[in-house]
Design a protein that fits this description.
Oligomer: single chain
CATH class: Mainly Alpha
CATH superfamily: ABC transporter involved in vitamin B12 uptake, BtuC
CATH topology: ABC transporter involved in vitamin B12 uptake, BtuC
Distance between the termini: 71 Å
Largest sheet: none
Number of domains: 1
Number of strands: 0
Strand content: under 5%
């Protein structure tokens, strides 16, 4: 019989591995729904990681660290927005440049914090509920960003399907020229989406340095931004599928380590590569379903908008 403590440990580690992916992916989903493809997710996540870690250590407050992480991601999205929204630059090239810039800038800013012990986000503690076996710590003993990630999924789903602003955003993503002709400010809508996506990516990075492993190391995002981008495609641009995908990828990441701890001989290199192998397999499978992609993919995704003179 499987020990309850082992089940709890696995569930908790899966949640911590999945949350940064979910936070970053839900923001990118909104960005892509507006017709913008931001490949700078990795750069914004690493900016959030160092921003949150530095702010928490300098102020002694993890709450301030979380706020600064979100702001850092949003700030890094500003040059991307200027280039692709206002100047109609190539979105792929600009996003890749943003990632390279973010990784380099974070390494420079974070150098004084290497080896510095970090502050960890406090976990919720509800007497009588948190102490319940298995479900107590899993459901009632998480930190605030875990609960925020689920709130964002529900809010984004409602926003995109039930609110007028969400329908406007989807209209911009599906046909920016038609939206412009109807009097919708395409650039304003895309700017709001890009800033929101940057803030969510920053929160994902901040979770890594404040909860997942409360310390700062260079390149600590370790490709999670690219996995989050794949999750948006995996989800067919639907928020609830993003949550499912994030937890599937989180489980793939963690279960390999638990299998190794249980005595199953798995090379550590294979465990490190497993999430990325899963990403490739999922994308190959999804790409074969042309109908699903055609129905949900924003028609103007990646296309620059230049208003008619």
């Amino acid at each position: 019989m499987v020990d309850a403590g082992i089940i709890t440990a696995i569930a908790l580690t899966v949640i911590t591995a999945s949350t940064p992916l979910l936070l970053a992916a839900i923001g990118e989903l909104v960005v892509e729904r507006s017709g913008v493809l931001n490949l700078g997710l990795e750069g914004m996540m690493i900016a959030g990681a160092i921003g949150g870690f530095a702010a928490a250590n300098l102020t002694g407050s993890t709450a301030i660290g979380v706020g600064v992480a979100a702001v850092a991601g949003a700030v890094l999205s500003i040059p991307f927005g200027i280039l692709v929204i206002n100047l109609a630059a190539n979105q792929v090239a600009t996003g890749l440049s943003l990632t390279l810039f973010g990784l380099g800038a974070a390494a420079m800013v974070g150098e004084p914090f290497l080896g510095t012990p970090g502050l960890k986000l406090p976990k919720l503690d509800i007497p009588g509920l948190t102490d319940l076996q298995v479900i107590g710590p899993v459901l009632f003993g998480q930190d605030g960003l875990v609960y925020l990630s689920f709130v964002l999924v529900a809010a984004t789903s409602w926003f995109l399907t039930r609110s007028r602003a969400g329908l406007t955003l989807r209209a911009v993503g599906d046909s920016h020229d038609s939206a412009h002709n109807l009097g919708i400010s395409v650039r304003k809508v895309r700017w709001m989406a890009v800033l929101f996506g940057g803030a969510c990516a920053g929160l994902g990075g901040g979770y890594l340095s404040l909860a997942y492993t409360p310390l700062w190391t260079e390149n600590m995002t370790a490709g999670r931004g690219w996995i989050a981008l794949a999750l948006v495609v995996f989800s067919s641009w639907l928020p609830w599928r993003v949550a499912i995908g994030a937890y599937l990828f989180g489980a793939v990441t963690i279960l390999g380590f638990h299998a190794q701890g249980a005595g199953i001989r798995i090379p550590s290199q294979f465990i490190s590569a497993l999430p990325y192998l899963a990403t490739i397999v999922v994308l190959v499978i999804i790409s074969r379903n042309k109908t699903l992609l055609r129905v949900n993919t924003p028609a103007c995704l990646g296309k620059p908008f230049v208003p008619a003179r």
